[in-house]
Amino acid sequence: MKKLINKPEDVVREELEGMALAFPDMIKVHFDPNFVYRADAPVKGKVAVISGGGSGHEPMHGGFVGVGMLDAACPGQVFTSPTPDQMLEATKMVDGGAGVLHIVKNYSGDIMNFEMAADMARSEGIRVLSVIIDDDVAVKDSLYTQGRRGVGTTVLAEKICGAAAEKGYDLKKLADLCRKVNINGRSMGMALTPCTVPMAGKPTFTLGEDEMEIGIGIHGEPGRERMKLKTADEITEMLALSIIEDPPYRRTMREWDEAKEEWVDVTLEDPPFKAGDQVLAFVNSMGGTPVIELPIVYRKLHQVCEKKGLKIVRNLIGPYITSLEMQGCSITLLKMDDELIKLWDAPVKTPGLRWGM
Amino acid sequence: MPITTDDVIEFLHRAADMLHENKEYLTELDSAIGDADHGINMDRGFQTILKKLPTVEDKDAGTILKTSGMALVSSVGGAGGPLYGTAFMQAGMAVAGKYELTAEDLLAALDAALKGVMMRGKSKPGEKTMIDAIDPAVTAMREALEKGATTLQALEQATIAAEQGMKNTIPMIAMKGRASYLGERSIGHQDPGATSSYLLIRLMTEMAREKQ
Q: Which is catalytic among the residues A30, A57, A102, A302?
């Protein structure tokens, strides 16, 4: 293992210490339990938006804390979900009296830890709703697996919901918006190389010199297929078509019902993409892919979208939801409407994403 | 002979040692179908329990177990934290206020732990999880006690059933958690969670045997 670190067990803490020193105008960092929160938190009267997950996907989530995006982010150990005490303390810290939205990626650990935290926060009198992001079309089956994983759409949901919270959306309306982003967003990724969790010291999986994994997860979860390396155009087309031609997807999620005061199962279905749709196209680096390669992917993605009748109205290109030093990329397409475009364009000032202010 | 709170404390200490010794083994099992951290996480969690124990040593078994559960929840992360944490917290609720536990109390605690894991993980037997070790153990222990077995005999039956349950996960397809993404590729691997659950049940039995 060759990494620019001091001790493997200090990676998360020292990263947080560095972030706090680098961006004091945007964020503060709380230790034990660990969370990153907005420098001006709590914002009175505004719904707070919190996310979190294992570390190793930077800038997500800690780099997205600031005005117009997240109020707090809870980083777990690398690739390990954070614990409920982190989310509970973060929720208490940033609640401005209007309630807190938890944006949770669909991994069993994240779901369980966030559920426990939400239960604890509610028992302390804070309104909490949770929305689960599950957008990875590489996972086809929702009946016999944990279901689709939460990947690229998470970044877009955090930006859009953060903007909506600034504009005064109430908690219920914000949760509905987050759900809307989730069912309209789809992603798929691929890996050229594996990555190494610092504490493990060994790569999470192996790939031959001429092999790639199509449909990889952001923790190196196996995808749809392992195959011989192809060109950027061929890879991009494979990913893009898997997303664009993905059939309607149904899944059942557990969500908190405020009227019944209990967790209930909610079934949601994604509408498929169709010609004439406006989309946001997000080309993401898995961390190890050089920036020069991303426009090559975007170029082909643009062509495929055009051929399929999808109009790209906004884009995001760069390393935003990474997988340590993994080489590879992911593509996310989010169907946009006027509401989403306006919220996407709204000002944001975070260490990882900044425009308009 | 009833189980005292000293026994519960001793169990937690020895569980921490045992899981520390099995850290590599559990992590290796997890690397085949999971994210290669189960041993590391369990070790960290039980070391955290040891740090919390001095504050509850003179308390009832329920408080000791609930405190242990909270320690796991706040230190383990991943899926193992909420699942084992809920198991210990529910077990603690089942024996709240008690300073001496009968075999029936122990069964009630194990049963509550099982139900807690099923609720938290939205899971059931046959999905290649820790439930596949705990569920048969609870059934075997209940049947043994109904037939008039001693605590040790009932625990021995529970351990045999848990071991079989653990081995039964090998041909199963994983349907929960990260391993589920492997689909049929998860066949042929023993579930790490079922393994740690079996190891904990076996440790209870070993202690009961020594105390005979």
A: A57
Q: Residue A205 pLDDT more than 90?
A: no
Q: Is A57 a catalytic residue?
A: yes
- Cβ of A83 and B120 within 8 Å? no
Say yes or no: A216 and A131 in one domain: no
A219 included as an active-site residue: yes
Claim to verify: residue A174 and residue A219 sit in the same structural domain: no
pLDDT in tens, A37-54: 999 999 999 999 999 999
Please give the residue of chain A at the shortest CA–CA distance from B183.
A145
Counting the structural domains of chain B, the total is: 1
Of B77, B80, B181, which has the smallest distance from its Cβ to A77's Cβ? B77
* Same domain (yes/no): A319, A180: no
Mean pLDDT for A191-201 is: 92
Which of B24, B27, B29, B35 should one mutate to test binding to chain A, selecting the residue with the greatest count of A CBs within 10 A? Answer: B35
Task: Please determine, for residue A4, whether its predicted confidence score (pLDDT) is greater than 90.
Answer: yes
Judgement on whether residues A208 and A345 belong to the same structural domain of the protein: no
Chain A positions touching chain B (beta carbons under 8 Å): 33, 54, 76-77, 79-85, 107-109, 112-113, 115-116, 139, 141, 144-146, 149, 197, 199-200, 204, 217, 219, 221-222, 254
Q: Give a yes or no: residue A58 inside a domain.
A: yes
- The boundaries of the domain holding residue B205 are 3-210
Classify residue A2: in a domain, yes or no: no
Q: How many domains does chain A have?
A: 2
CATH assignment of the domain containing A116: 3.40.50.10440
Q: Which residues of B touch A83 (CB under 8 A)?
A: 73-77, 81
Domain assignment present for residue A6? The answer is: no
Residues A172-195 have a mean pLDDT of: 97
Q: State which residues of chain B have pLDDT below 50.
A: none
A209-251 pLDDT tens trace: 999 999 999 998 888 889 999 999 999 999 999 999 999 999 9
- Domain encompassing residue A131: 11-185+250-269+341-355
Q: What is the CATH number of the domain that holds A209?
A: 3.30.1180.20
Q: What is the CATH number of the domain that holds B205?
A: 1.25.40.340
Q: What is the ipTM of this complex?
A: 0.84
CB nearest to B81's CB, from A54, A113, A217: A113
Task: Report the residue from B31, B73, B178 with minimal CB separation from A84.
Answer: B73
Provide the pLDDT for residue A142.
Answer: 66
Task: For residue B86, list chain A residues with Cβ-Cβ distance below 8 A.
Answer: 116
Whole-angstrom Cα distance, residue A77 to residue A88?
17
Q: What is the pLDDT of residues B116-169, one digit of tens each?
A: 999 999 999 999 999 999 999 999 999 999 999 999 999 999 999 999 999 999
